[in-house]
Amino acid sequence: MTHTQGPFAIEAVQLSKFYGNFAAIRDVSFEVPRGQVAAFLGPNGAGKSTTLKILTGYVQATKGTARIAGLDISKHRIEAASKIGYLPENGPLYPQMTPLELLRFFGEARGLGDGALTSRIESVVDQCNLGPVLEKAIHKLSKGYRQRVGMAQVLLHEPDILIMDEPTAGLDPNQIRDVRTLIRELSSSKTVLISTHILQEVEAVADHVVIINEGRIVFDGTPSQMAAGEGLAAAFHRLTRPVPDPLPAPGEPPPSPDGDGRATTESDTGGEL
Fold this sequence. Notes:
The chain is an alpha/beta fold and 273 residues long. The protein has 9 helices and 10 strands. 31% of the residues lie in helices and 23% in strands.
Protein backbone atom coordinates (compact mmCIF):
# COMPACT_ATOMS: atom_id res chain seq x y z
CA MET A 1 0.00 0.00 0.00
CA THR A 2 1.19 3.51 -0.74
CA HIS A 3 0.81 6.41 1.60
CA THR A 4 -2.17 8.70 1.28
CA GLN A 5 -1.66 11.87 -0.75
CA GLY A 6 -0.97 15.19 0.94
CA PRO A 7 1.61 16.19 3.54
CA PHE A 8 -0.28 15.06 6.65
CA ALA A 9 -1.80 11.67 7.37
CA ILE A 10 -3.32 12.79 10.69
CA GLU A 11 -4.50 16.28 11.63
CA ALA A 12 -6.03 17.51 14.88
CA VAL A 13 -7.31 21.08 14.60
CA GLN A 14 -8.44 22.85 17.80
CA LEU A 15 -10.07 19.69 19.19
CA SER A 16 -12.00 20.04 22.46
CA LYS A 17 -14.16 17.57 24.34
CA PHE A 18 -16.34 18.64 27.24
CA TYR A 19 -18.25 16.54 29.76
CA GLY A 20 -20.47 19.11 31.39
CA ASN A 21 -18.09 21.80 32.68
CA PHE A 22 -15.10 19.48 32.55
CA ALA A 23 -12.71 19.70 29.59
CA ALA A 24 -11.16 16.31 28.84
CA ILE A 25 -9.12 18.06 26.14
CA ARG A 26 -9.06 21.69 25.04
CA ASP A 27 -7.82 23.21 21.75
CA VAL A 28 -5.66 20.21 20.86
CA SER A 29 -3.83 20.76 17.56
CA PHE A 30 -1.03 18.76 15.94
CA GLU A 31 -0.17 17.02 12.66
CA VAL A 32 1.56 13.76 11.80
CA PRO A 33 3.30 13.85 8.40
CA ARG A 34 2.75 10.79 6.26
CA GLY A 35 5.46 8.17 6.65
CA GLN A 36 6.41 9.09 10.21
CA VAL A 37 6.08 7.39 13.59
CA ALA A 38 4.71 9.84 16.14
CA ALA A 39 4.61 9.24 19.89
CA PHE A 40 1.70 10.84 21.74
CA LEU A 41 2.94 11.24 25.30
CA GLY A 42 1.32 12.26 28.55
CA PRO A 43 0.70 11.12 32.11
CA ASN A 44 -2.32 8.97 32.92
CA GLY A 45 -5.50 10.99 32.56
CA ALA A 46 -3.91 13.69 30.39
CA GLY A 47 -6.30 13.24 27.45
CA LYS A 48 -4.46 10.77 25.22
CA SER A 49 -7.22 8.20 24.84
CA THR A 50 -9.91 10.85 24.34
CA THR A 51 -7.88 12.40 21.52
CA LEU A 52 -7.32 9.04 19.81
CA LYS A 53 -11.00 8.16 20.06
CA ILE A 54 -11.88 11.44 18.36
CA LEU A 55 -9.27 10.91 15.62
CA THR A 56 -10.67 7.45 14.89
CA GLY A 57 -14.32 8.48 14.99
CA TYR A 58 -15.29 6.59 18.15
CA VAL A 59 -16.06 9.83 20.01
CA GLN A 60 -17.44 13.09 18.59
CA ALA A 61 -15.47 16.22 19.44
CA THR A 62 -17.37 19.05 21.11
CA LYS A 63 -15.56 21.38 18.73
CA GLY A 64 -12.67 21.28 16.31
CA THR A 65 -11.80 19.10 13.34
CA ALA A 66 -10.04 15.73 13.03
CA ARG A 67 -8.76 14.72 9.59
CA ILE A 68 -7.47 11.33 8.45
CA ALA A 69 -5.73 11.38 5.06
CA GLY A 70 -7.36 14.75 4.45
CA LEU A 71 -10.86 13.46 5.28
CA ASP A 72 -12.91 15.13 8.01
CA ILE A 73 -13.67 12.18 10.30
CA SER A 74 -17.02 13.65 11.38
CA LYS A 75 -18.22 13.91 7.75
CA HIS A 76 -16.50 10.93 6.10
CA ARG A 77 -16.21 8.43 8.92
CA ILE A 78 -16.59 5.22 6.88
CA GLU A 79 -14.15 6.28 4.18
CA ALA A 80 -11.64 7.53 6.75
CA ALA A 81 -12.04 4.34 8.82
CA SER A 82 -11.00 2.26 5.81
CA LYS A 83 -7.61 3.99 5.96
CA ILE A 84 -7.09 3.44 9.71
CA GLY A 85 -5.97 0.45 11.73
CA TYR A 86 -6.93 1.30 15.32
CA LEU A 87 -5.67 -0.72 18.28
CA PRO A 88 -7.21 0.62 21.52
CA GLU A 89 -5.70 -0.23 24.88
CA ASN A 90 -7.09 -3.64 25.87
CA GLY A 91 -8.54 -3.94 22.37
CA PRO A 92 -11.72 -5.98 21.91
CA LEU A 93 -11.08 -9.67 21.33
CA TYR A 94 -13.58 -12.52 21.52
CA PRO A 95 -11.98 -14.87 24.08
CA GLN A 96 -13.74 -18.05 22.95
CA MET A 97 -12.59 -17.63 19.36
CA THR A 98 -9.24 -18.75 18.01
CA PRO A 99 -7.04 -16.15 16.29
CA LEU A 100 -7.92 -17.73 12.94
CA GLU A 101 -11.66 -17.50 13.65
CA LEU A 102 -11.33 -13.92 14.84
CA LEU A 103 -9.35 -12.80 11.79
CA ARG A 104 -11.85 -14.45 9.45
CA PHE A 105 -14.75 -12.82 11.32
CA PHE A 106 -13.26 -9.32 11.12
CA GLY A 107 -12.18 -9.81 7.52
CA GLU A 108 -15.70 -10.80 6.49
CA ALA A 109 -17.11 -7.85 8.44
CA ARG A 110 -14.83 -5.57 6.41
CA GLY A 111 -16.06 -7.10 3.16
CA LEU A 112 -12.92 -8.99 2.14
CA GLY A 113 -13.72 -11.78 -0.31
CA ASP A 114 -12.60 -15.36 0.32
CA GLY A 115 -9.51 -15.23 -1.88
CA ALA A 116 -8.32 -11.85 -0.61
CA LEU A 117 -9.15 -12.75 2.99
CA THR A 118 -7.19 -15.99 2.91
CA SER A 119 -4.19 -14.17 1.47
CA ARG A 120 -4.40 -11.36 4.03
CA ILE A 121 -4.77 -13.78 6.96
CA GLU A 122 -1.65 -15.64 5.84
CA SER A 123 0.22 -12.35 5.58
CA VAL A 124 -0.71 -10.95 9.01
CA VAL A 125 -0.22 -14.31 10.73
CA ASP A 126 3.33 -14.36 9.39
CA GLN A 127 3.88 -10.67 10.16
CA CYS A 128 2.71 -11.03 13.78
CA ASN A 129 4.18 -14.53 14.37
CA LEU A 130 0.83 -16.12 15.26
CA GLY A 131 1.46 -19.51 13.67
CA PRO A 132 2.04 -21.44 16.94
CA VAL A 133 -1.28 -20.28 18.46
CA LEU A 134 -3.48 -19.87 15.40
CA GLU A 135 -6.04 -22.47 16.47
CA LYS A 136 -5.81 -22.01 20.23
CA ALA A 137 -8.61 -20.21 22.11
CA ILE A 138 -7.71 -16.55 22.68
CA HIS A 139 -8.56 -16.71 26.40
CA LYS A 140 -5.75 -19.27 26.80
CA LEU A 141 -3.12 -17.02 25.23
CA SER A 142 -0.57 -14.88 27.04
CA LYS A 143 -1.05 -11.11 27.03
CA GLY A 144 1.76 -10.81 24.52
CA TYR A 145 0.06 -13.15 22.08
CA ARG A 146 -3.29 -11.43 22.60
CA GLN A 147 -1.62 -8.15 21.70
CA ARG A 148 -0.27 -9.77 18.54
CA VAL A 149 -3.78 -10.95 17.66
CA GLY A 150 -5.04 -7.39 18.08
CA MET A 151 -2.21 -6.11 15.89
CA ALA A 152 -2.97 -8.68 13.21
CA GLN A 153 -6.63 -7.66 13.22
CA VAL A 154 -5.85 -3.96 12.63
CA LEU A 155 -3.44 -4.83 9.80
CA LEU A 156 -5.90 -7.14 8.05
CA HIS A 157 -7.39 -4.57 5.65
CA GLU A 158 -3.97 -3.05 4.81
CA PRO A 159 -4.55 0.43 6.29
CA ASP A 160 -2.22 3.29 5.47
CA ILE A 161 -2.42 4.73 9.00
CA LEU A 162 -2.01 2.91 12.32
CA ILE A 163 -3.21 4.43 15.59
CA MET A 164 -2.33 2.47 18.72
CA ASP A 165 -3.18 3.25 22.34
CA GLU A 166 -0.55 1.99 24.80
CA PRO A 167 0.53 -0.92 22.54
CA THR A 168 3.12 -2.25 25.02
CA ALA A 169 1.18 -1.77 28.27
CA GLY A 170 1.45 -4.82 30.54
CA LEU A 171 3.91 -6.70 28.34
CA ASP A 172 7.16 -8.24 29.55
CA PRO A 173 10.51 -6.94 28.21
CA ASN A 174 10.74 -9.54 25.43
CA GLN A 175 7.17 -8.88 24.30
CA ILE A 176 7.79 -5.12 24.36
CA ARG A 177 10.84 -5.61 22.16
CA ASP A 178 8.79 -7.68 19.68
CA VAL A 179 6.07 -5.01 19.44
CA ARG A 180 8.60 -2.22 18.96
CA THR A 181 10.36 -4.22 16.24
CA LEU A 182 7.04 -4.73 14.48
CA ILE A 183 6.23 -1.00 14.71
CA ARG A 184 9.59 -0.13 13.16
CA GLU A 185 8.98 -2.61 10.34
CA LEU A 186 5.49 -1.24 9.70
CA SER A 187 6.79 2.34 9.63
CA SER A 188 8.56 1.64 6.33
CA SER A 189 5.17 1.68 4.56
CA LYS A 190 2.71 3.28 7.00
CA THR A 191 2.14 6.30 9.19
CA VAL A 192 2.01 5.33 12.87
CA LEU A 193 0.68 7.22 15.91
CA ILE A 194 1.21 5.53 19.27
CA SER A 195 -0.03 6.82 22.60
CA THR A 196 2.20 6.06 25.56
CA HIS A 197 3.63 7.40 28.80
CA ILE A 198 6.79 5.28 28.43
CA LEU A 199 9.79 7.35 27.35
CA GLN A 200 11.63 4.30 26.01
CA GLU A 201 8.99 4.12 23.26
CA VAL A 202 10.15 7.51 22.04
CA GLU A 203 13.79 6.47 21.92
CA ALA A 204 12.94 3.16 20.26
CA VAL A 205 10.54 4.10 17.49
CA ALA A 206 9.52 7.78 17.25
CA ASP A 207 10.38 10.40 14.63
CA HIS A 208 8.04 12.95 16.20
CA VAL A 209 6.73 13.67 19.70
CA VAL A 210 3.52 15.34 20.85
CA ILE A 211 2.97 15.78 24.62
CA ILE A 212 -0.38 16.46 26.22
CA ASN A 213 -0.85 17.49 29.85
CA GLU A 214 -4.11 18.27 31.61
CA GLY A 215 -5.93 18.28 28.30
CA ARG A 216 -3.63 20.68 26.42
CA ILE A 217 -0.69 20.22 24.06
CA VAL A 218 2.53 21.29 25.81
CA PHE A 219 5.14 20.10 23.28
CA ASP A 220 5.24 19.29 19.56
CA GLY A 221 8.59 18.49 17.97
CA THR A 222 11.30 15.89 17.47
CA PRO A 223 12.78 13.66 20.21
CA SER A 224 16.06 15.56 19.99
CA GLN A 225 14.28 18.89 20.41
CA MET A 226 12.46 17.51 23.43
CA ALA A 227 15.64 16.18 25.01
CA ALA A 228 17.82 19.20 24.25
CA GLY A 229 19.92 20.23 27.22
CA GLU A 230 18.18 18.05 29.81
CA GLY A 231 17.23 14.61 28.45
CA LEU A 232 13.84 13.07 27.77
CA ALA A 233 12.99 12.20 31.37
CA ALA A 234 13.73 15.67 32.73
CA ALA A 235 11.88 17.33 29.85
CA PHE A 236 8.83 15.12 30.35
CA HIS A 237 8.79 15.87 34.07
CA ARG A 238 9.06 19.62 33.46
CA LEU A 239 6.32 19.64 30.81
CA THR A 240 3.83 17.47 32.70
CA ARG A 241 4.04 18.80 36.26
CA PRO A 242 0.58 19.57 37.64
CA VAL A 243 -0.47 23.15 37.08
CA PRO A 244 -1.64 24.67 40.39
CA ASP A 245 -4.91 26.59 40.42
CA PRO A 246 -4.37 30.34 40.81
CA LEU A 247 -5.10 31.77 44.24
CA PRO A 248 -8.02 34.22 44.40
CA ALA A 249 -7.27 37.87 44.99
CA PRO A 250 -7.88 39.11 48.54
CA GLY A 251 -11.61 39.44 49.18
CA GLU A 252 -12.61 37.41 46.10
CA PRO A 253 -14.35 34.01 46.36
CA PRO A 254 -12.45 30.94 45.09
CA PRO A 255 -13.00 30.39 41.37
CA SER A 256 -15.58 27.73 40.44
CA PRO A 257 -14.31 24.93 38.16
CA ASP A 258 -14.62 25.87 34.49
CA GLY A 259 -13.67 23.91 31.41
CA ASP A 260 -10.05 23.82 32.55
CA GLY A 261 -10.77 22.75 36.12
CA ARG A 262 -9.61 19.37 37.32
CA ALA A 263 -12.35 18.97 39.91
CA THR A 264 -13.83 16.05 37.99
CA THR A 265 -11.78 12.89 38.43
CA GLU A 266 -11.08 10.08 35.96
CA SER A 267 -13.55 7.85 37.78
CA ASP A 268 -16.29 10.41 37.12
CA THR A 269 -15.78 10.04 33.37
CA GLY A 270 -15.10 6.33 33.10
CA GLY A 271 -11.33 5.95 33.13
CA GLU A 272 -8.47 7.70 31.38
CA LEU A 273 -9.48 10.74 29.40
